[in-house]
Amino acid sequence: MLAWTIYLSFAGALLLALLPKGNHALARWLALAIAVGGLAVGVVGFVNGMGQGLTEIVNVPWVPSMGIHYLLAADGISRTLVLLTGIAAVSGVLFSWNIEVRTNEFFAFFLALIGGVYGVFLSFDLFLLFVFYEIAIVPKYFLIAIWGSTRREYAAMKLALYSFVGSAMVLIGLLASYAASGSHSTGLVALAHAGLPVSFQMWCFPLVFTGFAILAGMWPFHTWAPTGHVAAPTAASMLLAGVVMKLGAYGCLRVGISLFPHGLDPWGFSFIGIGSWRDVFALLAVIGIVYGALVALVQTDFKFVIGYSSVSHMGFVLLGLMTLNQIGMTGAVLQMFSHGIIAGLLFAIVGRIVYERTHTRQLAELETMHLSRRMPFAAWAFVVAGMASMGLPGFSGFVAELQVLIGAWMVKPWWVAAAGVGIVVGVAYTWRALQKAFFTDSRPSAHELEQEHKHPFAAITWPEVTGVVLLATVSLVVGIYPRILLDAIEPAVKALLEGVGR
Amino acid sequence: MNYTDLFRVTLPETALEVAALLVLLVDLGLLRNAAVKVRAAVAALLGVVGCGVGLVLVLQQGTGGLSFESTHELLLATGGFTAVAQAGVLVLTALTLLLVIDTDFTRHVGEFVAVILMAAAGGLLISGAQDLLVIFVGLELLSLGLYILTAFAKSSGRSAEAAMKYYLFGGMSAAFLLFGFSYLYGLTGSTNLHEILLGLYGPHAAQTAPLLYVAIVMIAAGLGFKVAAVPFHLWAPDAYEGAPAPAAAFIASVSKVASFALLISIGTAALHVLDGGHGAMRVLLTQGNTAPQPNYLGFNIPWSFVLTVFAAASMLLGNLAALAQTSVRRLLAYSAIAHAGYVLLGLAFFSYSPRSAGAILYYVLTYGLTTIGAFGVIGVVERATGSDKLDAFLGLHKRSPLLAAVLLVLFLSLAGIPPLVGFWAKFNLFAAVLSVSNDAICMGLVALAVAMSAVSLYYYLQVLKRAYVQPAVDETPIKVHPVSLIVLLAIAAAVVLLGVFPAVLQGWIAGFYPAM
Predict the structure, then answer these.
(1) pLDDT digits 0-9 by tens, A308-367
(2) Which residue from A481, A498, A471 is spatially nearest to A90, judged by alpha carbons?
(3) Which domain does A474 fall in, by range?
(4) How many domains are there within chain A?
(5) How confident is the model at residue B188 (pLDDT cuts 50, 70, 90)?
(6) Which residues 391-410 of B have a C-beta within 8 angstroms of A?
(7) Domain range list for chain B
(8) ipTM associated with this complex
(9) How far apart are CA B132 and CA A445, in angstroms?
(10) Which of B417, B458, B507 lies at the smallest CB-CB distance from A161?
(11) Contact yes or no for A171 and B458 at CB 8 A
């Protein structure tokens, strides 16, 4: 059933690529229909999967002589992230409603990217997972390079090369573990049971983990993220922050930790308190949390604020993964979902609703525009999104970050102390952006009022309202009743931890 | 050996030669006054028919070959990987010929097609050659054809310059090769690959080290030139840039397939001697190493060491130099050097199992297919814009959406992006290398290869960026000849389908090794 999310998206991409050019409305509606179809399949799959563990969807030999299978399966983590992808896809199409240049190509690349993302979340064969992972790279490049803004070609190339270098590291790990396990199978379960030597895992784990973590925006390999997010068209930044960064984190979890659990073992010596790869990556995650927040605090470009906040929030995901305990890792998966929704909402407001009307993202210029009065919808939507992003109770971010912090406290309290600084700064930069962009103190002069009256902003359109409501509702629902997702995530994390012997 | 056997074994070559003569006869005799377009179409179609007949004949031949009756020394092999390589040569030649239909660089299309066919016959010959003399004759037949093809655009100074450089380098490398061959003969008293290796490494081998090293380096230089391995690659960028597009496609594909098939022959012969029942392998490998490793030569013979050096140098220099190119043809030339590097890695870590040979053949066949398509696109763009610079591709998606789509598929495949065939070829090759040995050196080399293919994405994207992203200077549509368009679309479709269903071609290749 869930496999249809993949086929539907790729079929849609192909259809849109072949569609006669010039019929923008048809392309939009078709893309929306396909995205909604994918989401519907995802929801049905999620509901049906409740209470079930790992279920196989498709399993056919792909290259029999090398033990490669076309193996799709899903557990609670996969189902949650497929759901996220569906929501991100629908809202992404809604917020791209105003694309007028090469519309059908845009949606073709968009759906190809979505199809690749669905594929990664559902693959249980390492080779297949890698194939989908790389399929997602090329559409990103074209989405940013063709339809982007600020320094788009630079940002697109940087993003593509970072991704490709990361995936090259993963490919080396894939080849090495395939060879080391005796070259019988590339199935994730088979490889996990192949008994890879500890010394092998010790070097392969950091390689693969870093390869995936590049895409998750791990400091110091995060620099593609802010530039990429800023240059990308709105829908692409929503997808980048919403699901593509999750691909990286998911790979860290599903491949890095599950296949090479001994890579996290202590080295046997410690240097300034760091005695294992686990400490190394946890430290990098904490640095990412604090660094991302501090840099977001001083940005002059509204979108860069959100871009760096993504780096900070993804740090929580990586920190949660490194706790290696039930509550921390559950929190990490929930944070993937939560950040996907919230970052999507923030980018939609900044990149689509505000930028398309004001044609500037400079906070200093927005300050003079009195947006709270002229665009109350955008202002209040951003208040909601900002509260969610700060981690206020009642929104999904709170539940997720709290769990990560509790999990981290159980391992090393100082991680929490450092990450707490990041949360405080997170409140500050959201507040600052909110105030500068929307709620300025100064009163408009008579001349300004006249100008505003002459050139009113375009009215908020229905796709924008629908998209904002969709995303805000999801964040709120998960925040108020997190059990919906936790019931799926917790057993899956439990099974995963048992599998790696923790 | 009798003449019936000789005739039977060389039937595919004969088919090509007959087709070549027929092309000349029809073109110069019957169609003397016809329009160039008609002559090109007739000549190319005749050639394609010849290739088709050759293909049928190749596939009908059983495993075995032609040998001297008195000594059982094999002259020409048939079946096995030879058949795969020969089938590849024929299919790729046919595709090249179909691209010739839409050309205007020469009025002498009959001769052009005939020379392509004769060179392809040389390619068939070296794919199966097991004897130094046959190897040399085949190589010269192929090479002389390639020199002529490169020079065929007589009105173009670049074509003449490229051919001159290619010829001078080629002549020099042939001399090196022959010199190396003469040493081998002197050391072992035989011209047969197996006998030579038996003489060098067999139980009764004499101490031949210094002379052998000279011979190996000489031969490596000669064959390294054919596959454009660093440091013998200097001719490639010039030849690729100056040659007419179909000739460049032929050099980049057919000649590569045949040359790598020859290298596989050498590797297989070496392993056959060292591993295949002669008992020498154990002796050789247990020196200083108590655990015998069957199927693996590693650095124990200098040949592997030389190939490893070539491979690493080619991967590095090819990819790095390609970054700086502004001409797409030169870019493809450097990328070809890089790809040769990957394949040489597979040859350096070669095992006596179908796995290695199968992976290498898979790689060169699909690479040849992709690169013919790439030169097809370049040829069309070049005729429309008069240039092969990167900027000639500006706005290609507007000028010809189909051509741009073909370019996208082919270049992404060359960069190794799944689900295209280039990715599977690389994965398969590197997995084969690691299945031979996964010690630190081998792992490091594979890591280098993977890292370098990450680098290669940058320069392929440079072309695709012009085609898809940057604004067009000139938006007039580009007209593509229907035959060329169909061929290019078919190649792109094959690249996608073979990548999505990799087991199909792999199974077909593996089907030629019934015994193993």
Answers:
(1) 999 999 999 999 999 888 999 999 999 999 999 999 999 998 888 888 888 888 887 887
(2) A471
(3) 272-440+451-502
(4) 1
(5) confident
(6) 405
(7) 3-510
(8) 0.90
(9) 93
(10) B458
(11) no
